[in-house]
Amino acid sequence: MNDVSLIKELGLNEVSRRTHIEAEHLGYIADKNFEKLVRLNVKGFIKILERELDIDFEQWLSEYEAFMSERNQKNEHKSISVSPKISAYTADGGHSNTGVKLLILALIIAVAGVIYVLNEGDYFSNVLNIFEDKNKSVTYTGAVAVQQAAKSLNEAKQESKNATSDENLYAIKNLEPILPTEENASVVVAMPEVNLNANTDKNETTQTNKEESVTQNQEQNTSSDASKEIKQASDDKIWHLSANTKEIKIVPRKKTWLGVINLDENKKRSLDTANSFTIEIGKKQLAVTGHGNINLEIDGQTIKFGDDRPKRFLIEKDKVSLLTYDEFVALNKGKSW
């Protein structure tokens, strides 16, 4: 069984990728920051870490349980229960008396309203009589009114005709001839401008299309070159060893965690180092690094890796193979380390 310190040795990000637990929560577990873990599913996290990394959490859990027990005792001393007295629930009968009084007052107001309406009945009848009055107080002499209305209408029509005739005559006298030469001149001047603008827009559109075509060709060439480089880098996954090769070296370009598993003897060893590490040939072994900024030296040949992802290798008598995570776990009997 491994110790809790393995979480930091492998790196929080690497363990988070394997277990899908946030790196921040893994840091709390590694540092035993129990206060931050109170509201989290700690026991669920522990089960995942025990299964994936084969870590013994027995002592860690005993310390966590002691912390939670002490914390619960403090909270019990701080809790205070208060039973407030609510006047609404007291049986004094005051509210029922108030309801009866309001009901009696409402009945009195309703009765008074009915009496008032009955006494004022004459007033409403007088108002209705005003609307039903059929102009009894007004008398017209029909013949005289009709004659006066007809005379006024004829005078209005005659004045309208005279005004229309005067306006038409004035418009004819003051009518100015339309000069077509000015319109034609403006048309002649405007037409070349339209053609010039159209030609300019066409030229600009053509130039823009050419530039876009050149840009697209450059992008296609760049993507084609990039794909060739990626293919070339991914082809080299197995390096064959000569018969005289006795060892290989893993040279980290910055400090890293390094682990080696002897599959024949089922033994493990690990260390943090910034120096070159030598692995002897002759036994079937697995090697894993904390990051990918390393060089692999085989028979005087240097293979350079340049990313932050961990690198895993299978080292045999005649070759060294670069493994994926799933291949590494399969060879290590289902364990990531």
TrEMBL record:
<dbReference type="GO" id="GO:0003677">
    <property type="term" value="F:DNA binding"/>
</dbReference>
<keyword id="KW-0472">Membrane</keyword>
<keyword id="KW-1133">Transmembrane helix</keyword>
<dbReference type="InterPro" id="IPR010982">
    <property type="entry name" value="Lambda_DNA-bd_dom_sf"/>
</dbReference>
<feature type="compositionally biased region" description="Basic and acidic residues">
    <location>
        <begin position="201"/>
        <end position="213"/>
    </location>
</feature>
<keyword id="KW-0812">Transmembrane</keyword>
<feature type="compositionally biased region" description="Polar residues">
    <location>
        <begin position="214"/>
        <end position="225"/>
    </location>
</feature>
<feature type="transmembrane region" description="Helical">
    <location>
        <begin position="102"/>
        <end position="119"/>
    </location>
</feature>
<protein>
    <recommendedName>
        <fullName>Phosphatidylglycerophosphate synthase</fullName>
    </recommendedName>
</protein>
<feature type="region of interest" description="Disordered">
    <location>
        <begin position="197"/>
        <end position="231"/>
    </location>
</feature>
